[in-house]
Amino acid sequence: MANAISKTAYYTLACRAEDARQPRPLCGDTFASRFMDDEARQVWARFQSFHKANTSNAARHQIIDARVQEELDRAPDARVVVLGAGFDTRAYRLRGGRWLEVDEPAIITLKDAKLPVTEAKNPLERLSIDFGAESLASKLAPYQDSRRTHVIIEGVLMYLSNAQRKDMLAVLAQVFPRHAVYCDLMRATFQRQYSRDLHAVLASMGASFQDMTDTPEAPFLEAGYTAAGATSVPLRSLELAGKRGPAFIVRRFMPTVRDGYRIWKFERS
Fold first, then answer.
1. How would residue 3 be classed by pLDDT, with cut points 50, 70 and 90?
2. How far apart are CA 263 and CA 199, in angstroms?
3. Residues 6 or more apart from 233 whose CB is under 8 A from it?
4. 96 is in which domain, residue-wise?
5. Confidence band for 206, pLDDT divided at 50, 70 and 90
6. Residue 76 half-sphere exposure, CB side, CA atoms within 13 Å?
7. Which residues contact 47 (CB under 8 A, 6 or more apart)?
């Protein structure tokens, strides 16, 4: 599994696996350990010292879990599409949803072997795509219809150019006219001040952030989306860990941290 995004998938997987081992997990992805093979452990060894970032990765996942679960509680048969799914296991953990995971063939093959769709507690389909050579629009065309769809794009957008982000949103608008997007967006200032060392390791594996700005939500707003909420990843991480003092400080006195890395929900109808 050589491509750079797959390496980052191993990193985020390892964050969730480590979180699940804790006495008080933030996310509690008990399926993550299934994928912790030698390659995953080698990747994890390079990131173990980044405690705040690792915890934030687990919190990021939990924030999206909670937002999507709110929707599924209202409409248990809703379709959920996970773009660049990596080692996502939400179809096995959340209540409800008809799930479609989309990612590179190597990841899909590995997931099928280690966590078969037959074990999912919700309907689940996996769709493989070579993002560099195949058309996302063509791949998703068979699923095109007007029902409301929930699209999760986690740990992906910062690695795409602005043009690629706009192209992806155009495809989503074409295939799923009524949808909500759940994604993590990081400001350039936050990346420079708080994620420089982490990014250096990611970049050494070939996974560099692209076209970072302090208004990462702009492509969505320009494409006609409405912002339906944004949750601070660093702040929520502290709240989930029960660290009330540091959470208060971040909330009241550290806006660069508080607002620098957030989970956004965008609506398009």
1. low
2. 19
3. 56, 59, 60, 63, 184, 261, 262, 263
4. 52-195+210-268
5. confident
6. 5
7. 11, 14, 15, 53, 54, 198, 201
Per-residue pLDDT tens digits for 58-70: 999 999 999 999 9
- Going through the chain in order, the beta strands assigned E by DSSP cover 79-83, 98-103, 124-128, 149-153, 179-186, 226-232, 261-268
In a domain, 247, yes or no: yes
Of 69, 118, 125, which Cα lies nearest the Cα of 93? 69
CATH number at residue 67: 3.40.50.150
The predicted model scores a pTM of 0.96
- Average pLDDT over the chain reads 95
Cα distances (Å, whole numbers) of residue 268 to 164, 176, 227? 19, 9, 9
Longest dimension (CA), the chain: 50
Kindly state whether residue 3 falls inside one of the protein's structural domains. Answer: no
Structure token digits, residue 94: 């959340």
Q: Tell me what the mean pLDDT of segment 65-77 comes to.
A: 98
Closest CA to 159 of 202, 95, 193: 202
Q: CB-side exposure of 50: number of CA atoms within 13 Å?
A: 23
Task: Give me the count of residues in the chain.
Answer: 269
Query: Is 129 domain-assigned?
Result: yes
Confidence of residue 4 (pLDDT cuts 50, 70, 90): very low
Number of domains in the chain: 1
The one-letter amino acid code at 23 reads P
Q: Which pLDDT score is estimated for 269?
A: 84
49, 51, 66, 84, 233 from 190: Cα distances, Å: 19, 17, 24, 23, 12
224 domain-assigned? yes
